[in-house]
Amino acid sequence: GSVFGNMLEELESRKDKLGINSCGITVTTMEDVFLRVSNMSDLKYMKKDANRQLLQGVSVEFEEVYGGLPDMKTYSIFNQLHALLEKRFHYTKRHWSILITQVALPFLLVFLCLLAIRGVQGELRENFDPIKLDISSVYGSTDGFYYSTTEQKLTNEVINVMRENNVNSANVKNPTHFVLDY
């Protein structure tokens, strides 16, 4: 207490030399200082923009507190994908045993299944007579037609295939009328 008294007496005696009119001591807490600074900054911003809304003396605009965040404004699916992959990478670095169960174990199981199929493949083979795929063995007597204005190689091939399969073929002038009249 006497230190402050001596200091105040010294200031009073040298007032003119120091250029001081008066001096005093007040007890102010840090909370009071912060409240005063906050009120002063609110008043400053209110003068800037009279339409700005205040909620209990505190500005409600996000940009004033944190500044503009350009990454938050531009939505991009690539940013989300990058963040997700980076998160998975760091998680896998910390928990590498999960990587084994997620990648190596399925790879090993697929490999073992392929080996098992290859080993059993020879035992399951039986020799069957080839199936004859012709129209006459399935449908019996069959009628067919073709439409061609000129003789071409493809037309001759179609005629030969029909003849080999015992299909009665005819060259028609109008395929639609032929089918409707059949």
UniProtKB/TrEMBL annotation:
Keywords attached to this entry: Membrane, Transmembrane, Transmembrane helix
Membrane-spanning ranges: 96-117
Record's protein name: Putative lipid exporter abca1
